[in-house]
Write a structure and sequence with these properties.
Blueprint (H helix, E strand, L loop, with lengths): L1 H10 L7 H8 L3 H13 L3 E5 L3 E6 L6 H5 L11 E7 L2 H10 L7 E7 L17 E8 L9 H19 L4 E3 L3 E4 L2 E13 L2 E12 L16 H5 L5 H22 L2 H10 L6 E6 L2 E10 L5 E4 L5 E4 L3 E4 L2 E2 L1
Parallel strand pairs: 3-4
Antiparallel strand pairs: 1-2, 4-5, 5-9, 6-7, 7-8, 8-9, 10-11, 10-14, 11-12, 12-13, 14-15
Bound molecules: biotinyl-5-AMP.
Biotinyl-5-AMP (BT5) binds next to α5, β5, β8 and β9.
Length: 324
């Protein structure tokens, strides 16, 4: 109910909404409306109440709790169920647990801070409090397990489009799971699975998006960036998230209906890995060569200097000696 109230106030963009309109729309008493207004105030919203006029928003804190996620969300099922925690070890761990316990497709787990945020191969993901979008999304697609990595590429396209439609900032995709802004890492994506050899139970997609950090720890300060750093102003996390989830749902439905091909074409339009000399560092060694493209399955094709084409399923990519 509180997210519906918030949505009504936000939609009015600073204009008054009458207490009567709110109580009719939420089907509750005027006293109940007042109680919800007080709760929003406690959460940091500045709300003005005026006799005969009603309530209006003066200032919205940059929060990303269940209320902000639900208010203004335009999807059918992605983000309909939200698990929000202020501080967690990793949203992936919670998502794995609730997926095993039967969480619905489209459930998202969001935290304000992760103290054990993780990347691929157990690498740490820096997730300080109140600044980024740290999210895991639970999916239950009826696809063979070997197609799950395509969902990483689909997510990258959804994130790029979501950021663009929210704030008009254009980013690039670096195969397989990074989104770069001005050549620095803005977003990392981690796709994990619960599956039998021939059947997926759940895919858990982790998205880490740097929104309002003003600086990064020394280890990553040369390679990481945030929307704040690039834009020079604070960005509303909920707006970005609503746009990403809306784009995700559209692309995911297209993927389930029409397969990976249309997604691949969109992905290629944003990818900067293709057509360049790269080094692919895989767990079994490094290969240097020319990135020819991706297959219809999303696998990277790398031609070495002897003319042999290698299929790369997972790797860290370096361009011209620059490590990201
Ligand atoms: C990734 O791994 O890029 C996937 C990151 C996924 C994070 C999300 S947050 C929500 C969900 N819950 C989790 O616990 N994880 C997911 P990888 O390609 O392995 O990159 C990891 C590397 O990125 C690290 O070794 C650092 O060099 C760098 N890094 C760490 N934190 C970063 C940050 N905040 N911004 C940019 N780069 C970062």
């Amino acid at each position: 109910m509180r997210s519906k109230l918030l949505e009504m106030l936000i939609e009015q963009q600073g204009e008054f909404v009458s207490g009567e309109a709110i109580s009719n729309s939420l089907n509750c008493s005027r006293t109940a409306v007042w109680k919800h207004i007080e709760e929003l105030r406690k959460a940091g919203y500045k709300l003005e109440a005026a006799p005969r006029k009603g309530y209006r928003i003066i200032h919205q804190p940059n929060l990303l709790t269940e209320n902000e996620i639900k208010a203004g969300l335009v999807t059918k099922y992605v983000g309909k169920f939200v698990v929000y925690e202020q501080t967690v070890s990793s949203t992936q761990e919670i998502a794995h647990r609730i997926a095993r316990d039967g969480a619905e497709e489209g459930t998202v787990v969001v935290a304000d801070e992760q103290i054990g945020g993780k990347g691929r191969l157990g690498r740490p993901w820096f997730s300080p409090i109140g600044t980024g979008i740290w999210l895991s999304l639970i999916l239950k697609p009826k696809i063979p397990p070997q197609q799950a990595p395509q969902l990483t590429l689909l997510t990258a396209v959804a994130v790029i489009r979501g950021i663009e439609s929210a704030i008009g900032v254009h980013c690039d995709i670096k195969w397989p799971n990074d989104i770069l802004l001005n050549d620095k890492k803005l977003v990392g994506i981690l796709t994990e699975m619960q599956a039998d050899p021939d059947q997926i139970h759940s895919v858990i997609i982790g998205i880490g998006l740097n929104v309002n950090q003003t600086s990064f720890p020394k280890e990553i300060s040369d390679i990481a960036t945030s929307l704040f750093i690039e834009k020079g102003e604070e960005v509303n996390r909920a707006t970005i998230l609503h746009n990403i989830l809306a784009q995700f749902e559209q692309l995911y439905e297209l993927f389930l209906e029409a397969g990976f091909l249309p997604i691949k074409q969109m992905w290629e339009a944003h990818a900067i890995t293709i057509g360049r000399r790269i080094t692919a560092r895989t767990i079994s060694g490094s290969i240097e060569g020319f990135a020819k493209g991706i297959t219809d399955e999303g696998v990277l094709l790398l031609e070495d200097d002897f003319g042999t084409t290698h299929k790369i399923y997972s790797a860290d990519i370096e361009f011209n000696g620059t490590k990201l």
